[in-house]
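Narrative progress, year one. The postdoctoral researcher (J.K.) led the effort to move from monomer predictions toward full complexes, under supervision of the PI. The following entry was the first complex the group processed end to end, covering 614 residues in total.
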Amino acid sequence: MAHPSEPEVLDQALSGIGVDEKLLVSILRKSHMRKGCSKFFCEDERQFERWNHTAIKSLKAEFKRFKDVVVLSLMHPWERDARLLKKALKKGPMQYNVIVEIACIRSSDELLGARKAYHSLFDRSIEEDLASHIQGSERKLLVALVSAYRYEGPKVKEDTARLEAKALLNAIKNNDKRNAMEDDEVVRILTTRSKPHLKEVYEQYKKFSDKTITEDLEVELLLKETVECLCTPQTYFTRVFDAALRDDADEDAKKALTRLVATQESEEMKGVATKFEGKIKERVKGAYKDVLVGMLEK
Amino acid sequence: MATLTVPSAVPSASEDCEQLRKAFSGWGTNENLIIDILGHRNAEQRNLIRKAYGEAYGEDLLKALNKELTSDFERLVMLWTLDPAERDAYLANEATKRWTSSNQVLMEIACTRSANQLLHARQAYHARFKKSLEEDVAHHTTGDFRKLLLPLVTAYRYEGDEVNMSLAKTEAKLLHEKISDKAYSDDDVVRVLGTRSKAQINATLNHYKNEYGKDIIEDLEADSEDDFLALLRSTVKCLVYPEKYFEEVLRSAINKRGTDEGALTRVVSTRAEFDLKIIADEYQRRNSVPLTRAIGKDTRGDYEKMLLVLAGHDEA
């Protein structure tokens, strides 16, 4: 059996998502082996081999995953969501999809619980923080999404759904003249109607367009995610899992993995996740992998 | 403080039901008995009575009341018998319907209730109307009114006393700018009034007065015909000094030619178990006559009796 060179072993232990702790421990027990591990080390102008700065950053992120998934899973779901919302707000527009995700996927009572927890944790209401920190066109939509307390019964009015599908279609057609995200009717429909009703709107829309709402919203990412999370959550989960497990996934995409697995107990999510189980076992390493797989099998 | 009085020895719910059933039976109705019982029970007790009545006689107490009573008295008793959350849901729903629409009532409920009371109203709304309050408000209001009312009815305000003084300064300045530009329905005006905690808004408005010499209400009186401005003024009042707002509503209801029973009924039935005493004190201070006396002069019959009982005035 060909022994992999030590640099290769190190590389193996630290690539992918998470960290192969056992393998690392076995390496560290042996000799020092810095030379040749050019991915992690570089020679500076004094011929001194130092850790590559970017490598350290990404290593930190990989080691952190286990801690994050543990902390997130042990927290009360309301505190979890409140903290995730706060963090997403702080990080800025690139993370607003997390706000959409939480506001739209949680049940009405879970979202309410998060709002209560937010009061306790931060001495403010989530809506006042969102409203005062978000300056762009997404403010109206996001504030209204977190403020919703949607009816959860199955009752749906087909006629109203049809009218509202038409209204959405119009707003999307006029997107270049007026951002659909700022259209009062779009915001009203998406932020006040019940989820069963919105699923009906989604279906009715197909009668007026040869594309689905989400296909027509390719340009408006935040709106698209809103519709996905409300009407077709499996599509959303699939997309997020896929993006997280790709070879070229960036840090934000990988973080989504922890967030989804630690916060989602719904059957829909589990169903999607099982499709990715193979890929997870391949790409993810160490204790982090064990936690993820364990949670998915719960 | 509430004006509702409950006897120290309260009969059991089934005893109350029996008495009520007696009051309904035979020719006519024993209104005094109804007032005596229902007018002296708190929300929990009334809920128990309703439950017991349904179980004992297979009929909803409210339906029975609807059959037996009429007019203003009936509406008052009906509203009073509901528990606070259902009452708010009922009034809010009524306020979204075409013939009874009222932005003022929606704003009043959203702003004078505590965060949890508003929440319970929203929950009661789901249960009774199979829809969310916000979807009805959104569907039945338009323009600036919708822009203001939606955040108000969906708010879940922080309720602590903590106040950020520098934020109060910044937002007072912001409000002043927008108001000076007559941008009354500006995003930021709606944002401050719709999301900040009541304590924070209070601090902001105090700062406004200190800095600019005028109460914000005065600066919002530019156009007496503007309905939106009127709503905005009432919103501010409801958020920071609700007892003054309610006093005004009562004064206007009583002084109006012929009395505005709708408003009178609404204020008395919704505040009797909360702060009608404080409102009544404010009324006396402002009008130099006790609220109960003003009500007595302006109304009559069983309607008057029930109002007075709820307002804490019992005829010896």
